[in-house]
Amino acid sequence: MRVEYINPFVESAYSVIQEVLNVEVKRGELYLKSSSIPVLGVAAIVGLAGDVEGRVLFDMTRESALKVANDMLKSMDMDQIDSLNDMGRATITELANMITGQAVTKLHNLGFKFDLTPPAIFTGDNMEVSDPGVEALIVPMEIPQGKIEINVAIRERT
Question: pTM of the entire structure?
Answer without folding.
Answer: 0.90
